[in-house]
Queue: 2 jobs
Job 1
Amino acid sequence: MEYLIHLAILIGIYGILGLSLNLVVGYTGLLSITHAAFYGLGAYVTAILLTGFGVNFFLAMLVGVIITAILSLIIGAILSRFRGDYYALGSFGFNVILFSIFLNWQEVTRGPLGIPGIARPEIDLRFMIQDLRIVFSSNWSFLILTACFLLLCYLLSRFIVNSSFGRVLKAIREDEAAIQVFGYHTSYYKLTIFVIGAALAAVAGALFASYITFIDPSTFTLNESIFILAIIILGGLASNRGALLGAVALVLLPEALRFVGFPSDIAAQMRQVVYGLLLIILMLYRPQGLVGEYRL
Amino acid sequence: MGYSEEVEILPQLILNSLIAGAIYALVALGFNLIYGTVKFFDLGYGALAAVGGYVTFFLYKQLGFNLYFSVLAAVLTAGLIGVILNWLIYGPLRRRRASSMVLLVASLGVLTALQAVIAILFTSQFQTLSRAAGAQKVFEVGPSIGLGASGVITGVQLVIILVGAVIMGGLAFLLRYTRFGRAVRAISDDEEVAKIVGLNTSKIVAGVFFIGSAVAGLAGILVGFDTGLEPTMGLSLLLKGVIAAIVGGVGNVYGGVLGALLLGFVENFGIWQISGEWKDAIAFGLLLVFLLFRPRGILQK
């Protein structure tokens, strides 16, 4: 049972990552391969504030989201000058740079040693109501917390894509030059959605850091960005349900491999083989994914 | 750092920059050849460098074959896998007029899967290619060309620089003076027109994939002899090659070489001033500077 709850929490975290990346890649058509960097930034800011300063989790998450938003504003401003595959390559580069900051800025991030002992979230209302202090220490309670955030992200994504703002995003994806003719400053829209996507990824990062209680740079590599991309491509681009479906499928898939009984290091590599083949097969036979409405 | 110390280290820094530049140039040459012809960023190309290195490792070190045979077989294998990938994946996608992003994602899949297969077959541990244990033979450069200070270079590194120059010259000749080269340039200008005038474009594209992938394999082998092999070596090589290609001018043979040399120098002088861990970040910093201020590279096409 604990194991199933663990999987459900992971699905929730990757669901948030998938939903947020889908806003950028699926709805706006910007092939961003740097999502793990923002995910990592959210995780690191939260972890540092929790372990070093004893800040409340929710405040730490908020700070992480704000810092990530500011940084993604700068990165997005640079990226918004590119399109198509150059955009993808540029974003690739930012993932490498942020990863090397996580790895090498040892005074702050402890480098490859990682940050252990990250506290679980708690809500302390004892100053208002007596004895009201909730600590999300059990996995059950953490699952509920994750589910709440996932639901919020889902509703936010749905709100965005159904709004007039979201319609402009889809128009940019279909034909950027045409929508510019109508007087829309497309780079402003591209930048806004990029920042929103990054901020949501930071939420997922904060949850991950607090759930595992330990983070190190190896979680936030390019491979992780590719994994998140695989989630939304499998589920279907430009579909919120698709992003969730992809997260469920790709979190559960390697668990199935676990039961085949490979040694753990080979199992880890087998997962990469499966993700790689999955991307190839999807591109060949079903580029819109399971329930997607947009093809790259 | 004192002035005299800087002069002391300068020849070695220049040598290191040249060696790194030659490796990046090899990768960029093959990458540019493929990109120039098929117009998509083939990320799977990186894995072929690892394929070259590991096939050599298997034949030369594990089975004990002759060095030249092993290297030749490894280069041919890398080329062949490139052709097969084109035949199975990229070719069908291109015929369907898939966007360059679809091709990029598919090639990302190739990279991920191939790297992992290599790690399963040969473990993800660091391996060396040379049979001789201990230090390699080194040559001292400097006094002979009238410099006060001197730097050292190993035999393998000398070979790297030579091979880089030979491959560049060979490719330039091939593209400029042969029928095949003219056909490649025709496809690179406009594939439809090339087809209409009767070129067998799919055959020529296959040839391009063979040559490009073989060059990648060769680069992987040289890196294996110089430093060593890792399943993920392809990705880092590829990234450097791509940066070199973009900095120099995508799809331009000489541009790639120029970009590679610039990258080699910026990286080595950068880590001298900052620190070795920031090498990748420095490389991508260079890429971003170019993408922002000179997006079509040094030699614009």
Job 2
Amino acid sequence: MKVLVAVKRVVDYNVKVRVKADNSGVDLANVKMSMNPFCEIAVEEAVRLKEKGVATEIVVVSIGPTTAQEQLRTALALGADRAILVESADELTSLAVAKLLKAVVDKEQPQLVILGKQAIDSDNNQTGQMLAALSGYAQGTFASKVDVSGDKVAVTREIDGGLQTVSLNLPAIVTTDLRLNEPRYASLPNIMKAKKKPLEVLTPDALGVSTSSTNKTLKVEAPAARSAGIKVKSVAELVEKLKNEAKVI
Amino acid sequence: MTTLVIAEHENGVIAPATLNTVAAAAKIGGDIHVLVAGQNVGAVGEAAAKIAGVGKVLVADNAAYAHQLPENVAPLVAELASGYSHVLAAATSNGKNILPRVAAQLDVDQISEIISVESADTFKRPIYAGNAIATVQSSAAVKVITVRATGFDAVAAEGGSAAVEAVSAAHDAGKSSFVSEELAKSDRPELTAAKIVVSGGRGMQNGDNFKHLYSLADKLGAAVGASRAAVDAGFVPNDMQVGQTGKIVAPQLYIAVGISGAIQHLAGMKDSKVIVAINKDEEAPIFQVADYGLVADLFEAVPELEKLV
């Protein structure tokens, strides 16, 4: 079966972001960009499905600027077969991205779509669920285990307080949580091979999708800083402070 | 202007996060209705009717809604949503699962995990793991929003007397089914609702050593959490994880033991009222956010702390 994986180019998770002085957003100039960590897990899961003989083809798609081709090449080096970039320089909302992915799903007809549960920049946690709604497919979000068998997929989900397993009819949408797998690193020969794999570039217009939004970001501010308190010298002093100063115990 | 709040409930009991979500709805203003969807949820509907500030409770009692499968619950919410200005759910794993599906069906953008209500159409929410706060305005006819429970003080669970109305709409997409659930059992308070949280990090060295934290927690009536490093190292199960990718907590007192204070962990606990850090590395970043820092060997400090509290 064909598996579609969606990946997003985001600020590398090790970067400490800074808010721009004019409060229009965060400063992305000269900042290291990477594949969203949850998307890496999505790629890895697809590659494992292919290694198990469950998946026959892995198509990786990204919605973003021209530079998102770097993340698509990374996915190709990790084992995806071909790539699609839906190029847009605009900052798109999750709904717009979901509509674009729906257009790609219509075109590619995958049996399984795997996405990260959320991007570490916008922290929305929406796109997979929205894609599922627009496609009319079942969804297995926050997956820690994915088991395809016949025309169904069993997804074990990380929920508050434990795990839940659901069975979904294929085609279905899966979003990954951290413990689904540990992504591999791309080997040098595979990075070289990835350069020759096909990468198609599309536009929202060509897909006939409007990316207008009902959300508008008015400003972005730095959070209220929490200042360091004091160092106590002993457990006894700590307990005294907690009882008499902070009054929390 | 009327807000529909999707109730979170389990085993016939309203989850505390619902009370915080109703609080957010009250900040928006206007009437508040609560939807209880599930199977055999009559008692939950009665309990929801007692929540302070709630004007009406809608109860959709149907086997299709039994395990909150989003394929079935989202169409129900989307159908009801047309009569409302706002649809709110707690940003729990359940709310996060269902609400974006509702938003897409309504063709509107969702606003995730708001931490404050600026006006009826403008909200604040953390982005970049809490390293920036965005102010977002929605022009949607129905504003679809998830609420971070720690951002709002819970309303009273008692005192209201709302009318309860049955909703007959049955949506069974037939695309998904519940298989099983494995919930961690604990006598301690739930992490996100606890007044005191004791968390351990990589410094705990192994899972067995968490017993020191459990016994301290039991003396304090606290919940026990962990950093991602401790979870990834296999010391404790992942539902104990506090952080950007785990639970977001904001207790009265947070005691971080053997936790270095990675950005990802701070994102999950920095709104705690009082933070205590116990770490033998005096350079650990956790001390930069701690109200009280103690540079000490945790294996000596924690038992001593337990004795003195």
